[in-house]
Queue: 2 jobs
Job 1
Amino acid sequence: MIKVSFASLPGSSSLTVSTRPRDAMEAAAISSVIELLNGYGIAVQPSAQAMAAPLAALGLVRFTAQGLSGTATLGASASILKRSNAAGSGRDWIAELANQFVGRWKLKLLRSGFELWSMAPVAVKGRLLVTGISQPDAPPFVFSEAQGGALALWMEVEVTGEVGKMTSPAEELPREGDVILFD
């Protein structure tokens, strides 16, 4: 198993495909978190500091692709959850935020030629958080914002073979945040 830990800052939100899928995944994950929260009026930035606020909930989404599988785990403080969705439950909302993050991430990767499939998100709260955040060999990528809120992202990717690459015209893909209607 190869665990991918994200520790470098993105140079921009545009992606270029390199010989290493990890580079495209890292850039896409970081910019997806920033863009997702900006869509809710919350400006987060990557932070080299430890988590400034305790996490209230975690949202997990499994994904798979040719040659790899993994889990995206998004954790948010209570203030981030409340400010991004004042009327909703924290448990349901963190699952929705994780789902929206993975959707944005998948679209960015698709534009770079990597196609992923994801499963329905799940949420974890309360006493189960300690297990998710106490793994020293897999530190999260931490984001913070001016009002003291915090967000953490863990990405675990297991490469099982040659990672498949596809070609798809970018003009046929929706943009992150677009509403997509199905018949």
Note: Residues 35 and 72 are 16 Å apart (CA to CA).
Job 2
Amino acid sequence: MTPDSGLPTGGAPALPPEDSYYQAPSPEETLHYETWMATAVARIWKIIWAMGACGAVILMLWRGWTWGAGWLLGTAVSALNFRWLKQLADSLGSSTAAKPRKAVFLGLRYVFLGGGAYVILKYSAISLPAALSGLFVSVAAVILEILFELAYARNGTVHH
């Protein structure tokens, strides 16, 4: 580094100073955060399936089997998308080589979703509005988990 500018010389990246404010988490902290995240994800899965089942029963009683089936189909696709996004997030920090086939599939999943919606609309009795509403189940489950953490983690009643 040049003394007056603070810029690295020779194109090499500057290393953080020894008294840097960042410290890598200890193994105990890492284990705590991994356990906390695994518990939160498990709760999200439970919320997804509970909302899917309850919504299907309510819609089946209220609007008929086509709406209940549409909701279940949307919930299943939503859960599958949540699984794919979780796998993507898990792979971001891994040291394994990236698989181009997976990247293409992740990019095309919305094309598959649109094709499925077209088939439902054109050739099936399943309710498209119910299926499209079911697609938001995983989003609602994540929001409920955030609210759960805000409500219970603050006072220390949730043990991860």
Note: The mean pLDDT is 80.
